[in-house]
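We include the pair:
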Amino acid sequence: MSEAIKNRYEFVILFDVENGNPNGDPDAGNMPRVDPETGLGIVTDVCLKRKIRNYVETVKEDEPGYRIYVKDGVPLNRSDNQGFKQVDIEDASGLKSGELKKKIKAKKDSGIDVDKQVCDWMCANFFDIRTFGAVMTTMVKGALNCGQVRGPVQLGFARSVEPVVPQEVTITRVAITTEADAEKKGTEMGRKYIVPYGLYRCEGYISANLARKVTGFSEKDLQLLWTAILNMFEHDHSAARGKMAVRELIVFKHDSELGCAPAWKLFDTVHICRKNEEETSPARAYEDYLVTIDVDALPEGVTCRRLI
């Protein structure tokens, strides 16, 4: 495994959507998520992590060390069992809970650090565990303390810079399923929800301390993460997310493992406003905004880099 990163980071992601649904809410008929008090659009951290995972899976294609643990339609137990094999337990899924605990206890009594052995192997082989951490439920049931791994990279919810107004668009469906339906009516009506335009801001954190102590998140992993963030919508286009793009990634780097300043002080240096402050009509393009960073306000020991 490569050497873990030595510097703490914070970062800001700016991405926008045009005539699309950036993150549907299943509790609201898949309408775009909106804060009911402020009208600001919301995209969850889980949604963004899924895009990052998908990008890494697409470009790496299960290359050793860059497999993805949380996959659509793939049971977690399948990957967990590969971790168990590292301590010579061939198929944990086929063992009853009591039998599994006895096997693990016997190994621990013989001086084998089973928890660390399995945890290290999972972190070394799965990029998303090494990055975001994971809760490996099978391992918890098997009395392994490595069942929960805290990852060094964490994301907050993304919020739109200005309130968004989701629109319901009525569509017609000409594809008829059965002959009976064709005789009754030629077309059917449906609907989809869009945000005409929204610029979203997401803030993230990277702990070098957790990278060193827990997962081994390395400089090579960090560069892949930056690339994945910048391109996370490029292989995710759909009818609902046809025009989404990361416009800018702003990275704050501390010159130490534990950091030189609170994260909020760095985030407060990033300002987003309208280019024409007197404009009252809704924004409809990224060019309507001006993004500035108060570099002079950065604390000593912190540098800023803008990736576009």
User: Anything to note?
Assistant: The CA atoms of residues 40 and 163 lie 4 Å apart. The first helix runs from residue 45 to 60. The two ends are 30 Å apart (CA to CA). The mean pLDDT is 89.
